[in-house]
Amino acid sequence: MLVRQPEDIRGVVCFIGMGSNLADPSSQCMEAVRRVSSAKGIKVLRRSSLYRTEPVGFAEQEWFVNAVIEIRTVVSPNELLRVLQAIEDGMGRVRGPKWGPRVIDLDILLYGQEIIQDDSLVVPHPELHKRRFILEPLCELASYVIHPAFGISMSGLMDRLNDKSKVYIYNVKGQPCLI
Ligand code: A4P
Ligand code: MG
Fold this sequence. Notes:
Number of helices: 4
Structural class: alpha+beta
CATH class of the domain at 6-126: Alpha Beta
CATH architecture of the domain at 6-126: 2-Layer Sandwich
CATH topology of the domain at 6-126: Alpha-Beta Plaits
Largest sheet: 7 strands, antiparallel
CATH superfamily of the domain at 6-126: 7,8-Dihydro-6-hydroxymethylpterin-pyrophosphokinase HPPK
Oligomer: single chain
Shape: globular
Strand content: 25-35%
Radius of gyration: 16 Å
Bound molecules: 6-(adenosine tetraphosphate-methyl)-7,8-dihydropterin, magnesium ion
Low-confidence stretches: none
């Protein structure tokens, strides 16, 4: 018997990290959410708060705005990467030095419970468990999700986190406050 799944439960739940530190970063993140929601085969389920975050890796640059979105998608991991890169390009991203300033960066943090390691895609994102600017917004949405390679929840990864870089959540008035 063919059982049809309702549209809203088809596909895989994934988490996308976004970051910007150029040209009004919070607007860039909100624009990226809009563009991801309009992409074919992708439904945005939830967005974390926006976070003001101290630059990691290359300190001599502006602070970032970071956020995470939860999506449900029927597109494959590699196709999802292509869609996200097309959105980055469409928003005027110029690929500069690794860890350098960017108008928008969209990373696949988790694609369901899949573990992927090919030339162009590594999922879960290899830096996910090391970065406060990813784990804070991810825990806001889904602290219960298990990292498929480590078998540890996102809140468990937060407990083990060594990253002391500063991460502030925007309060309701849009002002940063320490969490
Ligand atoms: N790639 C492999 N796996 C993935 C994945 N899971 N998601 C490949 C997305 N891309 C993935 O990415 C380079 C290549 O990674 C892609 O071609 C893709 O095939 P990129 O976005 O073009 O280059 P990048 O952003 O310079 O590299 P990367 O590794 O994304 O940089 P990071 O590690 O994200 O560092 N500090 C704060 N506070 N907040 C930030 O958002 N971001 C960075 C960027 C540094 N410091 C930061 C922040
Ligand atoms: Mg990236």
